[in-house]
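Now read this:
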Amino acid sequence: MHSAQDIMSTQAVITKTDCWEPDVSNLVTEDDTPIDSWGAEKQQRLLASSIYCSPPSQKFLAATNVGIFYTLEEPAIVPDVFLSLNVTIPENWWEKQHRAYMVWNYGKPPELVIEIVSDKSGEELGEKLNIYAKIGVYHYILYDPSQQLGEKLLRVHELRERRYEETDRTWLEKVGLGVTLWSGVFEGLHGVWLRWCDRKGNVLLTGDERAQILAEKLRELGVDPDTL
């Protein structure tokens, strides 16, 4: 495996020459293998949809089950959710070299990844943790709703000298967002959900939640939103 420093060196070569691009024809960017439970699928969508409905001030890219390629020699690592700041998807995003998050194209790894633990075979505290640290992902967050890895539902890690340290801080200064556990109903399922929040702990609202709040305000004004 290549280190983050190796990757950045490769990126520097590409930038300087401006005429050579790595051959990505053999990379497997999609293989249709993810199999998720209802809870995991909805949890991923809740995180992705709410951040696009209440976006950070800077440009960003959030995705679920999209591969991160950090070297040409290794297969992608595929987090449940990732967030990368100050980047955008290229307009030709259907072309092979842009179908996944290739670190050499974006110039950096994502700032944050989230893994939703479903069983003990996922290596979330083993191989995955080591890979994310090696490629330089600053925040590594584990949500363990069925407590497969211990009593903690939520584990937040920060990168310190290429190694992760677990922290109690849920406000993520580097990305200007926080994470919190929220008890409620999302798309008909009641449970404890991992959600983004602001510094005061207020969750980022989904589009449906925003619409409900607007409908309540209209009713308070004597306007039936169903007639609009």
Residues 32 and 202 are 35 Å apart (CA to CA). Residues 1-19 have pLDDT under 50 and may be disordered.
